[in-house]
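FORM 7B: Structural annotation worksheet

SECTION A. Query
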Amino acid sequence: MIRAGFTFNNPLTESHWLVVESDAEAAGMGWTLEVRYLPGANPDILEHRHLTWTETFKIVSGVALYKVGGVQQTAVTGDTIVMAPGQPHIHPWNAGDSELIYHQVTRFAQANATAVQEVIGVFATLFGLAGEGKVGRQGLPKNPLQFVATARALAKYDSYDVRFPIPMQKLLAVTLGRVAEALGYKSVYPEYVCVK
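SECTION B. Predicted structure
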């Protein structure tokens, strides 16, 4: 189980993620992460939208770029950014000369401890696969079956890539996503989420 204190790193961007709150600490309503980016680091996650989540980013230190509704903006130490359900967005990334640190507070409309575990687990798994050279430059799995297994997990919780129509993503999740799972592909692999 992922709990407060769990850490994971993205070898592609060299970002460092610390779970401050998981489902246990947030009563299943979401999570809080502390994310650190070195200068010049690109975003970890492509533009996406969540239909039922609210994400709030509090800039602890540094200068960030982020994108909401197709518009790129800047945030600095002390700023708070709220990304409402349905808004296409890209999480903050470092635009300054020093380390960027922010807190990401994600809240659901209803408590769902399984969603907390699975979604954080998806990103820990993606970063683990990146360390093994199994993802491309954009951080997505190279293997199409692994890709749809990952997409299926995110679609379960109404999280979607903005580049493709949501109905198409839902269809792929329930068809090819199930095939991928039947063949042994997972959205979360235990070796990447075990607490050390």
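SECTION C. Observations
The mean pLDDT is 95. Residues 64 and 95 are 5 Å apart (CA to CA).

SECTION D. Sign-off
Analyst initials: ____
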